[in-house]
């Protein structure tokens, strides 16, 4: 995962997603990882403020793949299923999503945005285009 794809509030998972279904909310970001904390053993207080470690390293993070179930949790409604595609629309009809096993196509206000495969990417696009956060139940 590229750290440049992430922003505060994104939902991601760790490398064990398939086994543990871990959901992680991005609360802080650095080039090393997310959800930063200060490491301090009490011996060197002058260094504690500069030694910051991430709870989750970037190389251990994964995007959460979009799925029918996940899209429904964001408020999208399945419109139809044709030839391996599941078509979804949001209440305001500004966003439509077509999922299949090979590719996800997302359309915002008539503009097609390809390569939105993961929840954090949909969250980012939604925020940029609507100016609001994508709610997930």
Notes on the structure:
- With about 140 residues, this protein is an alpha+beta fold.
- It has 2 domains: about 5-60, no CATH class; about 70-130, no CATH class.
- It has 4 helices and 10 strands.
- It has a 5-stranded antiparallel β-sheet. It has a 3-stranded antiparallel β-sheet with strand order 2-1-5.
- A hairpin with a 2-residue loop joins strand 6 and strand 7.
- The chain starts with 10 loop residues before the first strand and ends in a 7-residue tail after the last helix.
- The model has no long low-confidence stretch (mean pLDDT about 80).
Topology of this protein?
Elements: E1 11-14, H1 17-20, E2 24-25, E3 33-38, H2 45-48, E4 52-57, E5 61-62, H3 68-73, E6 77-82, E7 85-89, E8 95-99, E9 104-108, E10 111-114, H4 119-130
Give a quick precis of the structure.
By secondary structure, the chain is of the alpha+beta class. Helices cover 19% and strands 33% of the residues. The chain folds into 2 domains: 3-62, no CATH class; 68-130, no CATH class.
State the end-to-end CA separation. Answer: 24 Å
Q: How would a textbook summarize the main sheet?
A: 5 strands, antiparallel
Q: What's the arrangement of strands in the largest beta sheet?
A: 6-7-8-9-10
Number of strands: 10
Low-confidence stretches are: none
Mean pLDDT: 78
The helix content is 10-25%
Strand content: 25-35%
Outline, from the CA principal axes? Answer: elongated
- Indicate the multimeric state: single chain
Number of domains: 2
H-E order = EHEEHEEHEEEEEH
Summing up helix and strand content along with how strands pair, one would put the structural category as: alpha+beta
Q: DSSP helix count?
A: 4
Radius of gyration: 18 Å
């Amino acid at each position: 995962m590229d750290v440049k794809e992430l922003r505060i509030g994104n939902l991601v998972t760790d490398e064990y997603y398939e086994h543990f279904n871990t959901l992680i909310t991005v609360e802080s970001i650095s080039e090393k990882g997310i959800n930063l904390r200060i490491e301090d053993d009490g011996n060197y207080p002058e260094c504690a403020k500069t030694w910051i470690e991430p709870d989750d390293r970037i190389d251990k993070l994964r995007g959460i793949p979009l799925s029918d179930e996940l899209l429904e949790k964001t408020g999208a409604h399945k419109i139809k299923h044709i030839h391996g595609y599941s078509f979804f629309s949001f209440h305001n009809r500004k966003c439509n999503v077509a999922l299949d096993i090979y590719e996800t196509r997302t359309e915002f206000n008539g503009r097609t945005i390809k390569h939105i495969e993961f929840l954090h990417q949909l969250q980012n696009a939604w925020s940029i285009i609507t100016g609001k956060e994508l709610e997930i139940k």
